[in-house]
Amino acid sequence: MSSGRLPPPEPVIELSTTSPVTSLAFSPHRALGEYEVTLYSGHQDGKVIKWNWVTRRPESSTMAHGESIIWLMCVAEKLVSQGRDGVVKFWSVTDPEWTVIGEIPCAALIFCNSSICIFNNQHLLSVPSDSVGQVTTHCLEQLLPESSHIVHLSTPIRLHHKDTKSHGMCMRIKSEADKVPSPYLFVAYESGTLTMWDLLRGEILTEISAHEESIMCMDCWAGIDTGTIKCITGSVDKQLKLWQVDNLLLTHKKTVKVLNPGMGSISVRADGKIIAVGGWDGRCRLFSLKSMKALAVLTFHRSSVQCVAFASNNYLATGSKDGYIAVWNIYNT
């Protein structure tokens, strides 16, 4: 007799690699059809791969960094990569050629990502600095598809927390510039502190003790219509926390607990409906951003899910320490 439960979801695409997957990014400019989205993956050995969804094989690749890839992002048909070798690189990828069109230094041998937002037709790149607890923001000329180099517009802005000893290293950063008078930068610290900065003024707007231990993953989402900004954080424990910016203050909205401890990656879908959380237990959990209700558990991977990313057509990719990438068509409405 049927229990009435749906069978567990399965990935629609499985990709196998020889090195643990540490970062993922989709190119939104080529999402013209069901299998026409471009997927990039970054790996522990420093390689970045561009995948062909039709053949399910690498289309091209390059040894982008001398250390593990920390972060990937696609912007204006360019790929941005960050490695633990202390460099952020901007790439023009025209198969099979990979051309570096700009490099910016960042902290080496850490695991904190960088972040990019667009404000007043400028790209603001925020990177972790060698100085503990400091973030440096570079104001760049607007990137266009035909751009062949990166132009710095002004002296970098340095955000340095005075309480470095108690806060420790930057663990995650995320900038937001949609529907706000000045861009914000959210910084999650080793101490479990979550801070929201006025990025251009270099001033702290609000700060809270979000977790008892280090914040391991974070993502933010800004509502286009309402301007509401929400932030989701995960740590080494079982708690996933939702925060909201109200009158320039971070307020706690809800905490949910998962079965096993340890969260390594979070991504909010562009429409603000779904949160994907990669766990150390090899599972990817899906939640509703509005209610924080648990929606599904994806159980394909055999080791820690180190990165999750949504495509512009709402497909979800998960990358794991086991060297596999899975692509899912879940709640794609």
Automatic annotation (TrEMBL):
Q: Which SUPFAM superfamilies match?
A: WD40 repeat-like (SSF50978)
Describe where the WD repeats fall, as residue ranges on this chain: 298-333
Q: Name the InterPro entries on file.
A: WD40/YVTN_repeat-like_dom_sf, WD40_PAC1, WD40_repeat_CS, WD40_repeat_dom_sf, WD40_rpt
Q: Does the keyword Transcription regulation apply?
A: no
One Pfam family from the UniProt entry? WD40
Key words of the record: Repeat, WD repeat
The protein in question is named Guanine nucleotide-binding protein subunit beta-like protein 1
- Species the sequence originates in: Biomphalaria glabrata (Bloodfluke planorb)
